[in-house]
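User: Okay, second chain of the day. Same drill as before: sequence in, structure tokens out.
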Amino acid sequence: MSETACMPVQPATTLPREWVESETSDGGVELRIRQRGRGYLVGVPIFFVLVIAGRAIRLWPLSSDQLGWSAGISAALIFFAIWCSYAQQYWRLGTGYIESHLDFGPWQRVRRYQNGELEIVTGRTSEGTPFYHLFAVVDGKRHFLFDRSMDDIVQLARYISARTGFKTS
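Assistant: Same drill. Structure tokens below.
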């Protein structure tokens, strides 16, 4: 047996640096984005909730308008921090399919796209900022997958195409 026969088969392209891949039990691949800075998305809203709570305690009793504002903003910030702590988004790829997963505790949403194509859509926002989107096109309908830089979108499209067999248009 030659040395090259023992080496794992590499996909046709590699992923952008911020992406992590892992093999699944069914022979597919699971893609995730590295979670750098996630602690700040939890810590900063909690800090602002503490500031709002400190202000409310200092100015107690509050008028109903101020109490409603303080409670509403605090609840929104707490929900955002909890979402950032527990929500997970990832994608599974296999021959002929792409699955987009969004998990939040016991709640899960899975969207599966089979035997489609990949399409890169570019344009500019109303402010003139360029955008690059990757879509799965199944039965003539576009399904949003990613929004990244042009280089990353092209690299992801090539990688996904090699793993799934989806053609790029």
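The chain has a mean pLDDT of 85.

User: Thanks, on to the next one.
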